[in-house]
Every structure is written in structure tokens, then in C-alpha cells.
Amino acid sequence: QVYVVFSEELQCWCRALVESVRHQADGCQLRCFLVDYAKYCSVASENIRVLAGPFAKIPYRAKKCRLHCTKPLTLHIDYCENTAKIGPAKRWDTAAVQHFRKLLE
């Protein structure tokens, strides 16, 4: 279900999908995916509202997606043998993410 949350970063109300809820001493924190900005954010529980009927039917501007059969790689450096090889990684390197974003632009 899509809700409306107030994003502190964007300083506006945005449509969002709630990914998870984390209970804290001062209330709940919601991890949300902003469907029109393709961003994740944390929102306090008092900053969430139910989305009014007609606005729920507007298509999202952003979609979660993955590159098909593309896995992250990184440079593995062996200082003992003085070699460097490209190999699989658990996460994408920051430099690779920045390079991909530049290619998209």
C-alpha cells in the first residue's frame, strides 16, 4: 500500500512504500521507498498519512529494478604477491555506482 510521508531531506510530502518498521523508545521509525524519487528514507511514525483515493492511481515515476545477470565486481589486491585481479564482490563499489550514474546521464 502506498502512503504519504514527509521527507526531511526533500522538505515535502511524497508518496512512499513502507519497507520496514523499527520500534524505538521515542516512537517508530519507518524505512520507506519514495516512489517518485527512487530514494530510501527514514520517517518518524507521526509523519505518515494515508493516501487519498485518486492520488493512489497515479503511476509511480520510479521503479525498483536490477540489471539482469549483472553482478558486482571489485579489484582484489594481494600485497604479498604484488598482484591485482578483478573478482566478484558482495556489493557494488562506490566508484562503480558513480560511473554507472554518469553513463545514465
TrEMBL record:
> Its Enzyme Commission number?
3.6.4.13
Q: Which residues form the Tudor domain?
A: 3-68
Keyword annotations from UniProtKB, A to Z: ATP-binding, Helicase, Hydrolase, Nucleotide-binding, Repeat
Tagged with keyword Membrane: no
Q: Which InterPro entries match?
A: SNase_OB-fold_sf, Tudor
Q: What is catalysed by this protein? A: ATP + H2O = ADP + phosphate + H(+)
In terms of Pfam families, this protein maps to: TUDOR
For whether the record's keyword set contains Hydrolase, the answer is yes
Q: Name one GO molecular function term.
A: RNA helicase activity
Q: What is the top EC class of this enzyme, as a single word?
A: hydrolase
One Gene Ontology biological process: germ-line stem cell division
**Matches recorded under PANTHER family:** ATP-DEPENDENT RNA HELICASE TDRD12-RELATED (PTHR22655)
The protein in question is named RNA helicase
Organism in which the protein naturally occurs = Gymnorhina tibicen
Gene coding for it: Tdrd12
